[in-house]
Specification:
By secondary structure, the protein is an alpha/beta fold. It has 11 helices and 8 strands.
Amino acid sequence: MIFWLAAAALAAALAVIALAANAGAYTRKAEARFPARGRFVEAEGARIHVREVGPEHGPRLLLIHGASSNLIELWGPLAEEFSPIHRVVAYDRPGMGHSTRPRRSAHTMASQALVAAEVLKQTGGPALVVAHSLGSAVALRLALDHPHLVIGLVLVAPASHPYPGKPAWWARLASTPLIGDLFTLLIPWLGPMRSAAAVANNFWPQPVPVNYLDEAAVPLIFRPAAFKASALDVCASNVEFGAQQPRYGDLLTPTVIITAEKDRIVSPKRHARALAADLPAAELVIAPDAGHMPHRLRTDLVIAAIRRVNELTAAPAEG
């Protein structure tokens, strides 16, 4: 009996070692394939990867990506369009892309907003903030806690309000102490096999654009540390939304919210439409059949929204 227990323990240990070795190799390969293209700034004890383009003293745009993503998500469809006149800044949220993660409270919206605020301070100051999905909650908290840094908001398929039920099973499992660490070692093997279906849900009801996985550097999220960071953010989101939602009525920042009629990832009724009702200075734009990805499928509407907010913030005061 003791022999079999020892053999089972040895086999388990060898399996963990093999998974860890595979995860390390995957991480090195993914980071070599999708290297950092910007510079790094220090924020909240973390090393944050920031990318910038456009005239240094032009009007500024800050791009904030959502869960399971990186700065390329919004950079791809927007940077080239606005960089001739605007200073476009994007960053990898803590623990994702090429950014490290603060050791404490990184999952809270207050901490995430502090990181965003520090990025703005170290890259030139206030900006119009464009955010997607969970990044929209960060943008809202940034505007609530650091209003002097936010000129306006464009929120794409936002996640912003408390929701019923539990977060996705993968997020709950990955964020569980110890067991989560073991589970994330499986992600470099499991993630790429399931990525096509997961991405398809984001783009539903439209097909996934050709080469999207490579263009958006999707393989970076299957590194264990990045996957766990995103899971921790997702699992904290309901409590964090509930804490800041009562403050939305105080936010007078000019805002355009863009949502589809149906979205398999974030409910437009529970989030975007509710947010439009809560914010005193918000306009709601419907992007038909754009699913959770209006910035990719209806980029024209996002571009128009950014220009609209620019117009609103540039308008002379009455009187």
